[in-house]
Structures are given as structure tokens and as C-alpha cells.
Design brief:
The chain has helices spanning 23-36, 71-77; strands spanning 2-6, 8-11, 15-20, 43-49, 52-61, 64-69, 84-91. A hairpin with a 3-residue loop joins strand 2 (8-11) and strand 3. The chain has 2 helices and 7 strands, in the order βββαβββαβ. A 7-stranded antiparallel β-sheet has the order 1-7-4-5-6-3-2. This is DUF1905 domain-containing protein.
Length: 93
């Protein structure tokens, strides 16, 4: 699944960067969530951004999902807050 959106930041105790999955794609994921989740509503996923691929979990938030963007990935791909990026998601493990 290919998704594009603007990178956001959550300024908790440490800043965390996320790519919000748009509504339509989030709805598609939600339909599969019971088959994929391993608890707390998180969905295991493999993500590709540019030349970088990693495994993580999608987090449910306000009816949509968020892709956490690791600092190492963001730095390797030159991505920051407010940038619009596209990622390839492979759901499940």
C-alpha cells in the first residue's frame, strides 16, 4: 500500500515524528486490523521510505493510523517536520 502525507511531530518528553495515514487508507487498514493486530490496536508493518526499509507498528490515533519515523530513517532520507513524503507499507509480518 502506497501512502503520502505530511510529516508531523509530537513534542512529548522527546520529539517523535509520524506520518499520518490518510482517512481512506486508514479505513482499509481498520477493516483488516483484527487479523493483523497483536494487541492494543497496533498493526505490525514493514515500511519503505526512499532507499530505507524498516519494521515498526502503526499506531491508531483518532480513527486513523500513524507511521512512526525513526530518527535514523529521517536523517538517512533527509526528512523533517512538514515535509510531504510517500511510503510503501506492507501490513503484517
Amino acid at each position: 500500500m502506497q501512502v503520502s502525507n505530511e510529516v508531523i511531530i509530537w513534542r512529548g518528553p522527546a520529539p517523535f515524528y509520524f506520518l499520518p495515514i490518510p482517512d481512506e487508507e486508514s479505513l482499509d487498514i481498520r477493516e483488516l486490523a483484527n487479523e493483523l493486530t497483536y494487541g492494543w490496536g497496533v498493526i505490525p508493518v514493514t515500511v519503505r521510505l526512499g532507499d530505507t526499509e524498516w519494521t515498526t507498528s502503526l499506531f491508531p490515533k483518532d480513527g486513523r493510523y500513524l507511521v512512526p519515523l525513526k530518527d535514523k530513517v529521517r536523517q538517512a532520507e533527509g526528512v523533517g517536520e512538514g515535509d510531504t513524503v510517500s511510503v510503501e507499507l506492507t501490513l503484517g509480518r
